[in-house]
# Entry
Amino acid sequence: MVSISPQYLPPEKENKKHKQRLILLVVFLSIIALLVVVIYQLFFKHDPTQEAIYRSYSICDFTPQEQQEKIQSRDVLQTVTFQDYLFYGESFSVFKNKYQQGTQDEFVGKTIQFRDLCTDTIHSFLMNENLDTNVPLADLPVGFYEVIIQENLNAFRLVYPTNIDEHFTTITRDSKRHDVHFIANNRLFTDIYTQGPLLRDYELFLEVKETTKNPEIVDVVLDPAYNSQDFGPVDKGLEVDGFIGSDETYKFATDVKQKLEAKGLVVKLTRPDKDLVVNTYGDTGRVFAAMDSKAKLMVELYYESVEDRNLSGTSAYGSQSVSLNFQEQLIRQFDAFDLPIFEGIGNQHGVFYNQLMEGLDSSNLIRESGGYALSAGEFSNLSQRLNGFAIGNRYGVHTVSLNVLMGSNWDFLETYRQNYDQMVEATANGILAFIGIEP
# Structure
């Protein structure tokens, strides 16, 4: 008789029980998850606006509802597209057409308004051809502004073809500055109910906030002339009876710097060492030093020499695309000390524009530091090759050349040494007066 051992088979009933338990566990967990959702909906108020609020720009300490009401309740106005904008010193200019130096824009003669959505106050300025006297950004109080152009008694909101997201820092006053945020973004504000955009266009807004002094952002640059190799050999400037122009401008600039810093300004020298050779152009040059520091003002200090040794006095020169205000403030302070002033052929009393060459400012320092505003890089192949950082740069430095004293005059050394302290004081006071700081 043959015996056969049966093979082991797992009990069928136990397998069925395992599957039933697994199903019950899944059902139980599903019920728990559903209960969690129901409890959350019942006992925790869910604000459907939270996602929209997170994505929406917040202004004026408004609640989300207040902010939306403020945006939607503004006057219904048509829009006008501006094609260009720039900064020169502390002035902001906006252009209906692409900016071209020497060409009058359609916005010239129009009133530009900055309407503060926080306080409903309006600040108005007249657009003109002088790049330094359009919108003085330091005069705008803290707030959030929409920008309106008044044209033939009609008001138009300014819109740009695309996004703008730029910051501008004003000069230090009373140890404080303003950060001006320029914004054009059609998705800036989000509807708290639909979560869609509240704006249809790239409207221009400005947000002005108070900020502390950042020593990395310079207010004023002083340029002690000479000790450069722009045209070959090192230019030491006027050299007579132990007087070396490059050494004297450095000393003069250092003394002016100390007086400006005593008033809380951040000041930089383009030539930080007496013996350092620094050219005008290039990424180690004077123009770059000013623009890279984000300075708003620069004053070149030098001693002019001419053939007529009877000519004497102080004079100041600036771009023909800006006003004479900066030069006038400097010369006014020299007058206050009864110092000699160069009158010029037309009795300009020390206040001049620099000459033009082929429609551009002839002063390399004034022109190139002005960036886009003064057509930097367009004067020559050299300026184009070495000053690429300035080409199209919207942040122009307002530069003035100050002839401290006519160096070719017979009595130059005597006059200079006798009046040195007063000339330093006058220079510092002139810069402070232009900024609006009490000397």
Observations:
- The chain has a mean pLDDT of 91.
- The radius of gyration is 33 Å.
